[in-house]
Amino acid sequence: MDNVLEFIQKRRSIRQYQKGAEVSDAQVETLLRAAMSAPSAGNQQAWAFIVVRDRARLEAVMTVHPYASMLGTATLAIVVCGDLSSQQYPGYWVQDCAAATQNLLLAAANLGLGACWCGVHPRPEREEGCRKLFSLPEHVVPFAVIAVGVPAEQKAPADYYDAARIHHETW
């Protein structure tokens, strides 16, 4: 797409997916390559990803995350995790994972897929639920669960620009 702003505004959180419509392994690899192309503090790349296709596990996520009901129709989820053992700059893993998540969401939109970011960190109860569900080692923190599938809904582009939120030089 020639206009990057137009493309970014077309990316929307999709919560309804076509049941049974598959996301290919090649598409998943593209999503993960996009995620791992994100900037990270000192290039530490303190992230790790879990690809979840198992229907029972997707449904189990809905029991530990109160806002993940879209996984009921999603083909898969990608769990974005911070790997604290890879940190060179403590605490920046959160920003690294956020940038990776945004890249993944944009790549999904570019592939014609729908995706929705379900935040896990910093909610201790969500972190603990995901930690148990995915058998995460102690040094890995679940950051987000991204629902992915073939969209069953279309949303108009969103322009949330608000000049009142902009300050120049000082507050």
Mean pLDDT: 97
Mind telling me the C-alpha Rg? 16 Å
End-to-end Cα distance: 35 Å
* Helix count from the secondary structure assignment: 5
Top-tier CATH class: Alpha Beta
Tally of structural domains: 1
Task: Give the CATH H-level superfamily.
Answer: NADH Oxidase
How would you describe this structure to a colleague?
This protein has a single domain (about 10-150), classed as NADH Oxidase (3-Layer(aba) Sandwich), CATH 3.40.109. The chain is globular, with a radius of gyration of 16 Å. It has helices at about 5-10, 25-35, 55-65, 95-110, 125-135, and strands at about 45-50, 75-85, 115-120, 140-150. It is built from five helices and four strands. Helices cover about 35% and strands about 20% of the residues. The mean pLDDT is about 95.
Summarize the structure.
This protein has about 170 residues and is an alpha+beta fold. It has helices at about 5-10, 25-35, 55-65, 95-110, 125-135, and strands spanning about 45-50, 75-85, 115-120, 140-150.
Tag the structure with descriptive keywords:
NADH Oxidase; 4-stranded antiparallel β-sheet; alpha+beta; 171 residues; 4 strands
